[in-house]
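Protein modeling request. Please complete all fields; requests missing the sequence field cannot be processed.
Requester role: graduate student
Desired output: 3D structure, token encoding
Chains: 1
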Amino acid sequence: MSLHLTDDPAADELLTNNPLALLIGMLLDQQIAMEVAFVGPLKIQQRVGDVDARTIAATDPDVFLEAFKQTPAVHRFPGSMATRVQTLCQTLVNDWGGDAAAIWTEGDPDGKTVLKRLKALPGFGEQKAKIFLALIGKQLGFSGAGWREAAGAYGEEGSRRSVADITSPETLLEVRETKRAAKAAAKQGRTA
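Delivered output (192 residues):
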């Protein structure tokens, strides 16, 4: 399966073939457009030389920060996000031997176990972990028992709630519209 989360074929190829790149893209997916977040791992690869947990964790933090700041920046908050990416990579080295995919492959885990493992990662709260679980279930063939239930509404078949549902430019627009409508409804609820 090939992911189509950005308008950049090289970025999508990296996300498809490198589980760490996908995990980093998910980590970066906050306070910036989804496709910008998911192009971030390609920028890191181009500037640091590799998207590998050991390499990133071992990179001098000042050097890594400079890679994040280069124009175009990897994220609108380069300082905090560079630190988060390095912390994530160090956690993967310490807990998973540097293998991001082990989170959803080691020991043939069910959906609930993968969700727990994801939530244990720095920068992954409940919602981000559920979205990522839905993404690997819907698009990368993760089939651990109960993954849809563990992913909650993000795991629903045919939903257009998150990056887990983006498979084309058309579905990207549908996800954007769903998010826009949800924000408008939330705003309406606050002003009522």
